């Protein structure tokens, strides 16, 4: 698990080491595979929207990690959470349009978990940003384990 360390404005941000990024990246490729199997009229525009939303999640995590302030980074993480929620919704729509034997609803549920994990990262980054504004020792934050699954 990667740790983000803040020391006098410097942030070590190799987002590729964050589990939340790795999950978003892996889920994107699963969405691409699923979208290739959806065979309904209008499939292109729907699948295009689905894959763009799914790609936006890891892309915003990467882009945000390169911003100069923790506050800016947190904003991109927040955008990634919105894209993950959008992807989850589009997958729920796809599960209603696709044949019953396609495991799309399970993938949508994985995006629900990803949204919660991204929100944890966002909350921790906001806390780090707040701590950085107050003089004191270096603050540390990590993406942490995923939140418990809801019943």
How is this structure best described in words?
With 151 residues, the protein is mostly helical. 64% of the residues lie in helices and 7% in strands. The chain has four helices and three strands; from the N terminus they run E-E-H-H-H-H-E. It has helices spanning 19-35, 43-65, 70-97, 104-132; strands spanning 3-7, 10-11, 139-142. Strands 2-1-3 form a three-stranded antiparallel β-sheet, with helices on one face. A hairpin with a 2-residue loop joins strand 1 (3-7) and strand 2 (10-11). Helix 1 runs antiparallel to helix 4 (104-132) and helix 3 packs antiparallel against helix 4. Mean pLDDT is 83; it is low at 1-11.
State the shape.
elongated
What is the overall number of helices? 4
Spatial arrangement of strands, main beta sheet: 2-1-3
Strand content: 5-15%
SSE run? EEHHHHE
- Give the overall pLDDT as a whole number: 83
Biggest sheet overview: 3 strands, antiparallel
CA-CA gap between termini: 26 Å
Query: Radius of gyration from the CA trace?
Result: 17 Å
Number of strands: 3
Helical residues, percent: 55-70%
**Poorly predicted parts:** 1-11
| Structural class by secondary-structure content | mainly alpha
Structure described in brief:
The protein has 151 residues and is mainly alpha-helical.
């Amino acid at each position: 698990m990667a740790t983000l360390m803040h020391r006098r404005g410097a942030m070590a941000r190799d987002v590729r080491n964050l589990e939340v990024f790795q999950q978003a990246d892996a889920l994107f490729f699963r969405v691409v595979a699923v979208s290739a199997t959806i065979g309904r009229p209008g499939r292109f525009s729907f699948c295009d929207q689905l894959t763009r939303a799914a790609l936006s999640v890891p892309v915003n995590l990467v882009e945000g990690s390169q911003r100069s302030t923790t506050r800016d980074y947190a904003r991109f993480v927040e955008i990634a959470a919105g894209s993950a929620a959008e992807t989850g919704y589009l997958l729920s729509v796809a599960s209603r349009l696709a044949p019953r034997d396609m495991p799309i609803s399970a993938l949508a549920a994985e995006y629900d978990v990803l949204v919660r994990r991204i929100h944890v990262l966002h909350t921790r980054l906001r806390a780090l940003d707040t701590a950085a504004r107050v003089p004191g020792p270096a603050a540390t934050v990590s993406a942490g384990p995923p939140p418990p699954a809801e019943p």
